[in-house]
Every structure is written in structure tokens, then in C-alpha cells.
Amino acid sequence: MNMEDLWTLEGLLLDKNNDGVPDGVSLYIDLPDNLYPLGLLDFMVRVGLETTALSFNFFEFTNQKVVMSFEKNETETRASFESGKLHIYYTSEEALSSLLSSIAGTELRENLVKDNAQSSITSISDIWTLSGFGYLQEASPQQHLNINIGCEKWNKQLFKATCNFAARLGLVSTSITLPIAQNKNAEIQFIIQQHNQSFIEVPKENIIQLNGSLDQCANMMEWLANERSWKENGVLGAWENAFHYAHFKNKEETMLEVKWDNPSEIELAEKHLESLANNQIQKVEVYVSEPLEIRSLLKNKWSEKYKNIQEITVRSSFKPGFHWIKEELIHQIPANAKKIKIKVKEHHLENSLELPIRWIQELYPIDAIIENETSISKENVQFELDNQLKHTYEVVTLLDDGTVYHLGSLDVECSKVPYVDGERFAAPTTSCIVFSSETGKAVMHFPSDRERFYQFYLTDFLPQLLDGIGEIKGEKGLTQPLFDQMEVEVWMSEEEERLSVNEERTSPLEALYEDIYFNTLDYFEDLGTKLIGKPYIAVGAVVPIMHVAKGENPRASIKVTKWHQLNKNEVKTKELFFEKNVPTKVRLEVNGHIDLWDIDELLTMWEQTKIDDTTVPNSVLVDYSFRGRPIHVIEKYLPSNEQFDNPLKMTLFKPTVLIECAHHPNEVSSNIAVHRLLERLESNNELLKKINIVAIPLANPDGHYLLKKLTKEHPEWKHHAARYNAVGLEFAHIRYKNTIFGESNVLPELMKRWAPDVVIDNHGIPAHEWVQPFAGYNSPPRFPVSYFIPSAKIYGIGRYSNELGTDVARENLEKIVKDMSEIYETTNIPKQNEYWRSRFRKYGHDWLPEIFPLEVHGNINFYKERIVTPTYSAVSILRYPEWVAADIISEVADEVVYGDVLEECVEAQYLFNLSILQTVSNSNVDMKRNGNTLYRERPLEITIRGEYI
Q1: Could you say which DSSP state residue 581 is in?
Q2: What residue ranges in 308-456 does DSSP mark as E strands?
Q3: Residue limits of the Peptidase M14 domain (predicted)?
Q4: What pLDDT is recorded for position 944?
Q5: Do 254 and 305 sit in the same domain of this protein?
Q6: Is residue 822, in this structure, part of any structural domain at all?
């Protein structure tokens, strides 16, 4: 054997789990007393560099593979390695030190690694972070170590502890600058010096000082070598949390509180009917937004009361065309009918948000209703769009004998409601009375309860809110909310009916909920764009709370709580004082002010601040949400059972996939799906021999908490109010910023810790129709495409940068999509995808393909066009295109579903993730070396799919 064999599995390295990756060190160092060669520190940092995991058993003999021994020699200094024996012969300690440094590889070679990240130390808690040694400003696949450890006097305990510390430094690095002793030019200086007190300090950036007697320094170094960050179940830095998370207790202060009540639209209708009481009226059609039960009672009541009116019909003013066909025409369809044609007038109004096919949209899902109640299939219910049509709807049926039978026609009345931008408008259907007499037909309009409240909200309340917010400056509206929370509580008599088709329902109040929520966000986005040239995206939590109050007059209550400006405390541990080998006091710099604190006191303060101390087995607690809920991350890799391991190093040897779940908690399947995936990997870890998996099961615990509250009254609504964080912020937009919202820090921390090759973001879409009458009867105009109904049971979105690495990213995406189509082939997913695809075509794509886009790839829709791809800088592949190989979103129709439907969504998400894991796991990873730098080519070029597990 030669000396290079020492750094292999034939030498001192171990592969404990048989995956071909070094994950342990088997080395016993038989160090004589009073021998302190500084070159051994270089040797130890190289030991750490060569492995992904290690334990501190170098100085205790436990039958290690390699035994390192030292022998004084009068004539030569040399080393030999044979049969597990590393013999070191030396003439002097200085010569021995030089020899050990040369074995470690001090020779300088050209650095081929372009992305060589250097960490910094400004606080003692920076020494061990989630990403290794020091604080990294940006994520990188490389972490370089450039440190000098200086000490004028040693004892055996201190020297051994420093050797362990050096090994751990090497473990968390991918490249090292040697030597790490007597190197005054190193960027980080670690100084061990004599002092009458025992403390560690960081007096300046990148200077660490260990102060005390030799024995005290030895104890502190041993503590430091063995300690972990509090995020990894250690102690280091835990005391800082008492100040980091002071915003948990945000003072609640009412900023604005208003109430609204009005007569019901039934009262308004009756006033109009009274005005017709003395006239001879042939026919009256009353349109009100009320449940069928109440409309039936009204018909009987008014027919009895107004004898002068020959015929009274009471119809719904919410989706009137749909209800007209469902409640009246279906029962008139002849038994021998084989086809229904619904002629629909094309919708065109200047500056209107309405789509030309708006009257087709309002019929959804009438074809499936007809199929359920007649012998006519939904495919034989056809729409015809006609700009010249006399009526809004004309319905005819084709009989078996070829006869065309006219079922009826309907004219739908609309009002005109300004949109929040003050430039466009919506044209919601309105309540009204249409009456026919000898002189002709006339219409009396009166706004529905919902419209009157919305008009009040838009023209009266929002300006009051803006006045209450006051001057908007600095980060308000951008990273700091304009208000803390706004509860909009509404009581109205409206229809609430679960339909007989999939998850579909009739729910005018859910529609109002969606309008209040999204239109409020759009109001402030537009305001910011006009005032400062960029949208206000940090508004505050908008929480609509709707109550179905049959037969009651409409009323509402709105309460807004004030946002108290909060900035993230800059906390740094400058000095750490020890008693009896443990830290007891800490000198903290908080926003530039320095105080001495008792550590137990700070930890008690922290425990009293937290509102949730949930633990998740075998997880890393990366951060806390704004309201104080822990955000755990589960990391799956083949265990080595060593004391320490390094995720970044693992990614050098195997591809790593990061999966984020429940970013929007109302998208309910991904959390369950990822736990299913991880559980199945427990019983079959073949995949982990080829890949590392990092999962964020619940990225937004505050949103999840709100969802549980909202679903108590309306368990099947979409509940987009629980989509964002505790103050209504899409926290993805403020990642990589210095923020008080801990949920936004989790992904950036994991990018630093793992530098994953592939990032998967599991999301969801509504499982039933998305209706917003005051935003153009569609999903909000903030979206460039329509989410009015699902386009698939599950589909994917692939993201990539147009600036760098595009070819590799495109090719990777092609392979992932191809394999994903295959994994779904033997499931029920293709059938469900085709079902929803056909619905999406019929009600949208066939008429407006750009607004209702479809990109079909085999058994799955997969969107790669930029129009549906998020482009903000926090997107992983856009931020790091030089090393992220794929960045993929899943979208499954799971917004608040249950039972069998939820199970279908969970399995679809599970297979989506599994397919990507299997594809990535068979990609070739070739770890390379250049001097004391370990690296591999990035981005990963994905190859073929593996076998199913």
C-alpha cells in the first residue's frame, strides 16, 4: 500500500451502510504524551474532509482498522502504511509536523471549483450552524475552510480536543486550505490563549478566542467540538431565541371596526311588486339570490298575495342560467331526446373583466347534471357560442326522429360593479324583476345582498381602511404588513348546496368569500404599483367568515387589528462564560446593545414565549413560524450511526431531492403524501442507497392552524384565506431576506445545508368551481391563466432559467415528464386526468386556449411555458441555475377534500414525488478531486428511471 491508499475504503475510511459512500473513519491515534505536532491538525482536517460522517474515537482503541503510531528516530522522518499500520518515524516535533502536513496534502493545486463559498463568523453561535461551520450568505454546493488555529501552549487533553475539532471542521467542508496552524493569512483566526476566566469570545468578525487555563481551555474545546446548533437538538445559540422571536407576542390593538346591515333583497323585491299591484301584469319573473327552499315559499306567497299577476316565477340570481336549466328545463326534456344544444350569447363589454365565454362558465356543470338526471350523456350536451344570439341562452333538443324541439330561452340581467383597480369592472348577475304586460317587457333592477355589501366594502370600507393604515413607507406593504388581521364576518340568506357531481357545489357565500379575499389583495397590489412602482404584497391576514343565515336580513361586521412595526432583532453571542465545563452566562449583542445574561434565565424566557413545542422524531427544527409554531424538516438518508454527519458532503456523493409540502395549507394532500413516501422508504430503503431526500412536511403551520378554524363551519370550501401565512403574506416572495417570518427562512436554510439537485414544491388547486362574480366570474385576474375548474387530477409545472443552464434543465425536465407519464400508466390517474382535461376543454380551452392552456405529455399535463411559471428570484432554479438541475411544482385538485377524493389526491402526489426520486436516483454522480477540493459537475444531468418501490 502507498500513502494515498490511506484516504480510501481500503485505508481508514468506512462504508458502514454499503452504498459506496465513505461514512465513517476507523482510526486510532496512539499519541505519546507531551507530543503536540501541529501538522496533526492538518491531518485531522483531511480525515474529516474525506468522509460524510465521523465519531470522536480517534484516541481510544476500539479495534480500529488503522492504527497510527509514532516513533522517535535519530536519522529520518518518514511514514509507512501497510496492513492497517500507519507508522510515523520522526527526528523532531517540527519535522513530524511537516510530515503530517504533507500527508494531509499541503501542496497547492489550481482550484477548478468556481463556486467556492466561504463562511463568516460574527457570533459564537455561527461556529456550528445548519449549514456547517460559519454563516453562509448564500447557498452553494461548496463550502471552503480557511482557518488558522493558534495556541502557544498545549496539554494532552487540549491537543486531542483540538484534533477532534479539526476533524469536524474538515467534515463540514468540501475544500480546505492547509495548513490550519501557523497560518496568519487565514481568513478565520481561532486563538487559544491563557486567561484567568473561562470563556469563548468573538471580538471581531472571523476571530474566535478561547480563553482560560490549559485545563479550562481543554474542557471548552471539547464542549465546542461536540456541541451542535439548537436547530440540530443541540444547545448552541438556543439562548438567542428569547430575542430572535420576540414578535410571537404581537400586541393586539383594534385599528378599525365597522358594522353594516341592510334590508334583504326580498324586501326590495316586495317593494317593486307593490308598485305593480294595481296593474294588469301577465307574467313576472323575480330573480333573487336565495336558496331554492325560500324561493319556492316566495313564489307561493307572492302568487297568493298579488292576484293581478297571472304568473309569477322566482329564480336564482346567482348562476341564473344553470339554475334555470337545472330546476325547470331538465324536467321538460322529452324521453326520446338524444342531444341537447345550448346556444350561448358571447359576452363582450369594454373594460370588462368578463370573458367572452362567461355565460358558458356560468352553466358549469350543467351537462353532468343532465347526464345524472336523464339518459343523455354529458358529451351530447353541447354549447354553441353566438355573438348575434337574441337571448343569453337558447336551449334546443334533438329527438330520435331528427326533430328539433325548442326547450326555452332566457335573458340574464347584469349590473356593473367597479373593480378594485378603478379601471375595469365586473358584470355580476343581479337581482331584478322582469315583468310583461300589454305594453311590453320591462325590468326593475335591485342589487343582491352580496352586491350591496360588496359595494359598501369597496367604496366605503376600503378607503376607511386606507385612512386607518396611514402613511405607507419603508418596508410596509413589501415585507411588513399594512395591518395585522382583518376579519370580515357576514351573515346572509344564500343557497348552500352540494351538487351530485364530484365535489361541485352551489355557494354564493363562498364566492363572496373569494371576492373579499383576493380582491382585497388586488386592491393593495394595484395601490402599490401606482404609488411606488411595485405592488404591495404584504397586506395582512384577510379572513372572511361567512354564515348562511336563511331568511335573515344581511349584516356584516369587520374588525381590523393594527400591525405594530416589527424588525428582526440582530442577536449575536459575543462571549460565552463557562463554569464546571458548561456555559452558564452569555454576553449578547442585541441590535448593537450589549448585556450579560444568565443562560438559564434566557432559556426560561424562550420557553414561556413559545406557543407550540411539538416534536417530530428524527427531524431537524429549522425555524419557527411567525406565531411561534415549529417547522420541522425530515431528512432521509442511509444512516451511518456516527456522531456527526454532513448533508452538504452527502450531496457530493448522491443526488439530493428536496420536497416542500403544505406551503398553502388549504392544499391538503401533500403533507399526507410525503409522510406516506417516507414511511414506505423506512421499509424499503433501496432508493436511499442512491439518493438523499429532504422533506418539509408542513411549511406553513400558521396557515394550517387557521384552516382548522375555518373548516369547522364550512368544511368543504376552498378556504384560500388559509393559503398564506399568519399575516396574509405569500412568504415565498420574501425568502432570502432579513425577515421576522421564520417560515420564509426554511427553504433558504435547506439550500445551504444540502444544496439539493432537485426541488419539488407540492401544491394544489380547487377541487370544485372557482367563482368570483366581482372579479369577472373567474379566478382572480392576478393569475395570467384561469383556475376556474381543474384541468387535471394532477399536473406538473417545470421551471428553469433562461439565462444559464437552460439546455440541461430542459433535457432534465423532458426525462422527468416521460418517466412520470409511465409511472401513472398502470393507475387510475390517466383516466381521471383525461376526464378533467375534457371538462377543461369544454368549458374553457376550446374557446380561449391562451387563458385555459393545456400542455399534455402522455398521461399527465405538464406546463413548461413561462406564462404559468413563477419568476420571482426566490425560485430555487432561478436563483441557483448553475447547480439546481430541476425545479418542479405539482398541482393536484385537493383544496379541502376528504375521504376517497383525498386518498386519490394523496396517491397522485405520492407517485409524482416517487417518480422524480426514481428518475433522479439513477443519474450518474461522479465525485471528483482537485487537490484538497472535492466537487462534482453541476447541474446534474438526469438519466433514466429506476425500478418502482
Answers
A1: T
A2: 309-316, 337-345, 381-386, 393-399, 404-410, 417-418, 425-426, 432-437, 440-445
A3: 623-721
A4: 65
A5: no
A6: yes
